[in-house]
Specification:
It contains eight helices and no strands. 76% of the residues lie in helices and 0% in strands. It is mainly α. Helix 1 packs antiparallel against helix 2, helix 1 runs antiparallel to helix 4 and helix 3 packs antiparallel against helix 4.
């Protein structure tokens, strides 16, 4: 009788464990589906910030609040490598917004360079989550950005058509980032 009770307990635990894993898997897919929409919205925001710091006629872009809620709620379902990467996005989003509010267009080139690098870095943090959100990667790479990654982010912000048509502007912005 004891052996039967132990066997039933083991089978029950096994079934509960697999139900838990299945439920967690569905929650991860739901989270990734939400992440894609949040990444689109956040990408549009970074593009708006990029245009804002370059065009004195533009007003500051509205901060999207929805994406941050998605990312904050996703952390509990992420693996140990991805959670710090999403946390870094949330943390830097708040830092960037604080700096953007205090940015004055008539500031010197050094201040422009700082805010430009902030926008490029925020965009990079968004870009690196895409593969994970599209389920093309099991984890989000959480590493310091290289110059190549930052330049890819800059080209992404400029847009390929504008980059191809106005390479001088790109080279100017690259020179600011390198210095």
């Amino acid at each position: 009788q004891t052996t039967i009770s132990v066997a039933v307990a083991i089978v029950t635990i096994w079934v509960m464990y697999h139900q838990y894993k299945d439920n967690l898997s569905r929650k991860k897919f739901f989270m990734k589906a939400q992440m894609m929409d949040a990444l689109v919205e956040l990408g549009e925001y970074t593009e708006g910030c990029f245009r804002y710091i370059q065009d004195s006629k533009m007003s500051s872009p509205s901060k999207p609040e929805g994406p941050m809620s998605v990312f904050k709620s996703s952390i509990e379902f992420l693996d140990k490598n991805s959670a710090p990467a999403v946390f870094e996005l949330i943390r830097f989003y708040q830092i960037h917004n604080s700096r953007l509010v205090s940015y004055q267009r008539d500031d010197n080139l050094r201040e422009f360079a700082k805010i430009l690098i902030d926008v490029i870095l925020l965009n990079h943090l968004v870009i690196r989550i895409w593969e994970f959100a599209r389920d093309e990667s099991d984890s989000i790479q959480n590493s310091n950005p290289t110059f190549d990654m930052m330049f890819y982010s800059l080209r992404n912000l400029i847009g390929i058509q504008k980059y191809m048509m106005n390479n001088n502007e790109y080279q100017y912005l690259v020179s600011i980032v390198r210095d």
